[in-house]
Amino acid sequence: MMKFGKIFLAGLTMILGLGLMAGNVQPLSASAAGTEYYVATSGSDSNAGTNDAPWKTLQHAADVAPAGSTVYVRGGVYNQKLKITRSGSASQGPIVFTNYGTETAVIDGTGLSVSGTQGLIELANVDYVTVQGFEIRNFATASKNAVPVGIYVHGSGGFINLSNNKIHDIKNTVTPTGKDRLGRDAHGIAIYGTKAPASIHDLTISGNELYNLVLGSSESLVLNGNVDGFAVTDNLIHNNDNIGIDLIGFEGTAPNTAYDQARNGLVKGNRVYNNSSNKNPSYTKDDNSAGGIYVDGGKDSIIEQNYSYSNDIGIEIASEHAGKATSNITVRSNVIYNNRLTGIAMGGYDDERGSTVNCKIVNNTLYKNDTLGGGSGQLFVQYDTQNNVIKNNIFVASSTDVLIYNEYTKNSGNVVDYNLYFAPAGSSEASWTWKNKEYTGFLAYKKGTGNDAHSLFIDPKFVNAANGDFHLQSSSPAIDAGDTDRAIIGTLDIDGKSRVQGAAVNIGAYE
């Protein structure tokens, strides 16, 4: 299990300059560290880089700014790429690229070429770098196998902060051909740990908005390969044609398989909605496989206090690679509602995939997912699930009345208990499928499976579910009805309130 200190110190150490730098300090070619520099559309790279005599190009600033300096980018549209290869340091501080005051600095890729996988802003093998406050837009291609990215971080490095950026209209619009439909890819933010054992670590991605991305078979925000220690917090990710947030392993991104998993991370406080592959030509017609939050082969991470709604899948913890597992993921205190296929999915999507092992799904509120009516229910247990814990969740079925659907018999050691279920048709007509056997009625399901000995079937009494308010009324039967196992429930609910109040714990996301 991850250590919280490592995660939360990622941003703090950047600010305070604590710790040791992992490499890549370049010789200083501007003035002393701590200096402020300026870039403006009216500037010149032959200027001194002051507010009165700013530089013109972002790249010139990146090529000369020393550790500890801040590059302020004045308002305007910069039709430029920016590649950062210089590092800050623990002793002198990060190199910071930021908008100036309340001015809107727009980095616009209109008409710029895309070569291979390329970021409009790119960070290669750097430490102690902050990129914040930009609008990043219109980086697009219609070329197969060219991959435009809003912000692309790759190689190794650490103490990197990407915050409060607005990233949109990053697109690959090529028409996919061939049976595999591959070669049509783009990302809003992509973190690729491509070295080993050196990782990308102490990474903070916070407060960004990612929308209107045309991603093909890729993801809005992805951490792939040797990424070890990260916090993805308080981002707004919406209206994209594939996955919202993805933690990936086993794709061969890192050169050593022992390091090829995103891990030791925190995904917290994000709002992810309207992400769907339904009309994405990289997939078959009417595909509905885009997760709001997806862990595909990642491990040792926490997903908590997020809202995921109106996607294809609310949250998925799975592995697409045979013989490989997504493991030690905790999904807790999230609100997941009105997703098209299902609320939470786990396990491989068919029997040629990998497994979900030693994960915890705890204190989540799931409401009327499965809006397509396909019968995947609120919890979709797929191929090869082992030793997972599913407790303290509220599951409210859609019009299908399906609560859990598990058509695979490769299902062992999973503990399901202390949940609250409800369905429009009532207790006797609600449906569960477990190890490929369907049960109609709550009592039949409990007797036939041995699951949910301490669970309830009753209206949870939300404050106003129709308007997205899933707080509990004071008379809710979910209050004080959960398992108090402190090893799994965490310390805070989705509102940041203490999870344990007295000796009792609520079922669901809200305490």
TrEMBL record:
It is found in: Secreted. SUPFAM superfamilies: Pectin lyase-like. InterPro entries: Beta_helix, Choice_anch_Q_dom, DUF1565, PbH1, Pectin_lyas_fold, Pectin_lyase_fold/virulence, Polysaccharide_Lyase_9. Gene3D superfamilies: Single-stranded right-handed beta-helix, Pectin lyase-like (2.160.20.10). One of its GO terms (cellular component) is extracellular region. Residues 150-365 form the Right handed beta helix domain. The keyword Signal applies. GO terms for molecular function: carbon-oxygen lyase activity, acting on polysaccharides. The keyword Secreted applies. Residues 42-82 form the DUF1565 domain. It comes from the Bacteria. Keywords: Secreted, Signal. NCBIfam families: choice_anch_Q. This is DUF5123 domain-containing protein. It comes from Paenibacillus kribbensis.
